[in-house]
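Why do we care about 3D structure at all? Because function follows from shape, and shape follows, mostly, from sequence. That is the central idea of this module. The next example makes it concrete: a single protein chain, its amino acid sequence, and then its structure expressed as tokens.
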Amino acid sequence: MPQLVPPGWPDQVLPPQAPDWERSAVGWLFDLCPAEYRAHDVLRKHPVVLARFAAGHVEAAVEAARHGIRTARAELKGIVGNDVVDAAIAAYEREGRRLVQVGRQVALVDAALRGERHVPRL
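And the structure:
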């Protein structure tokens, strides 16, 4: 049986058809979250709950990047040069795009944890 995953599936997570795939998903999800999340039994015992927490954490990080883009120029004016401000905004933009992609990956893993299976389109 081929190991089918939807487009955008995270490389660090085994395909849902593979043995131990949930363990790889849990490890990856925990890696996205603050280290303190590992202390919560409910997150270790219930991967779908962990996926929800990871999604919320990533969503907050996306919003933080967007906030940084909106406010960096005003908050850094007179503190650093315009070239540094531009570089900071570019970093926020790159990080925001990366985080949006991670959010999509979390959604794919969450769907698989809930039992949804990817059916490739022909």
